[in-house]
Amino acid sequence: MEKLDFKKLAEQYKTELFENVVPFWLNNSQDNDFGGYFTCLDREGKVFDTDKFIWLQGREVWLFSMLYNQVEKKQEWLDAAVQGAEFLKKYGHDGTLNWYFSLSREGKPLIEPYNIFSYTFATMAFGQLSKATGNQEYAEIAKKTFDIILSKTDNPKGHWNKAFPGTRNLKNFALPMILCNLALEIEHLLDEDFLKQTIETCIHEVMDVFYRPELGLVVENLNTDGTLSDTFDGRLLNPGHAIEAMWFIMDLGVRLNRPELITKANEIAIQMIEYGWDEQYGGIFYFLDRLGHPTQQLEWDQKLWWVHIETLITMLKGYQLTGSEKSLEWFKKVHEYTWAHFKDAEHPEWFGYLNRRGEVLLPLKGGKWKGCFHVPRGLYQCWQTLEKIDKSEK
User: Fold this and answer.
1) DSSP state, 164?
2) The pTM is what?
3) In 3D, which of 67, 87, 85 has the Cα closest to residue 77?
């Protein structure tokens, strides 16, 4: 494999982040009349729907707070984060920090608090912003919301759960996965013993429960006793989800000084991408069935922005932390696919949804599910990791 120019690659990711993606959201998504952010933005950045989705509002608060904390103390970034947080604080929950799924433009609730990700991203948002501002109220919102999340781990949807109780009780990978990341995000707000205990539980769930060595795969759903379920949900694989979780685990491995955990996470990530890669058209499938049956998700063969961006982060971290040449080869392959297909050559920000052949399905830059998060976070993470690799190889 030809040698990569890590310095040049680092510059590519950094330039894209600060000259293209961040200005797109800063200039187009802020609602200067009602507060919060528009996320439904067309190819050119024009608003096509004004509903506000709580988890995407939280992600954008987090992103601008993180850039302020990690990159540069830019007032416009802090202002963007604070105005979004104030809108969330005022309208995003029912008064007792049960976070709605979506609001009207003015802040009236549209959909009840059924979705645990409204809670996780509110926690991330207020945790990161409390670091930036020193505001105690923000810290309290993050801590209290985190406690609510932990109390919901057995039934995240609460009484909005459509499943009939007792017949097919499945547990889902998404929550332990997100908690791996969330625990480090709000580390500064948690008691050390409690933090350690939460982290160990998450690592165990991800690496010993949802990762199945007999399959060499991470599954999305399991019976509550930890056994496999031969059902639509039980056979479901989401390669991007599993690969993203592995960079969270690698970060925990670094934090806990556990190289064996990093190595295992890297191996699992490679198994998942080898399984999830579309040999015919390139790119990573969205959903697969572990027994090769048709999935119930009709969008199973689409190529999604976040899946590829999270994979870039994971493969780079895998190479940086373990020296795995396989990780580097996969980074190169995914990098080439991602920049050729998701980056819009004519307008800022990236496309989100491609068909199996890699053609743009929806020209939107933001919607109900895509906001100011995976592209900028991914560019930031790749830029930082590439700089570390460049320094270490000199």
Assistant:
1) P
2) 0.97
3) 67
Domains and CATH numbers, the chain: 1-29+169-394 (1.50.10.10), 31-152 (no CATH)
Please say whether the beta carbons of 125 and 56 come within 8 A: no
Q: Which amino acid is at 244?
A: E
Query: Residue 27: what residue type?
Result: N
Bridge partners for 217 per DSSP:
212
Residue labelled with tokens 């009602």: 34
Structure tokens at 215: 């399959």
DSSP state string for 227-290 = ----SHHHHEE-HHHHHHHHHHHHHHHHHHT-HHHHHHHHHHHHHHHHHHB-TTT-SB-S-EET
The residue among 5, 10, 2, 3 whose CA lies nearest residue 388 is: 10
User: How far is Cα 156 from Cα 87, in angstroms, rounded to an integer?
Assistant: 24
Residues of the chain with pLDDT under 50: none
- Report pLDDT digits (tens) over 63-100: 999 999 999 999 999 999 999 999 999 999 999 999 99
Position 392, amino acid: S
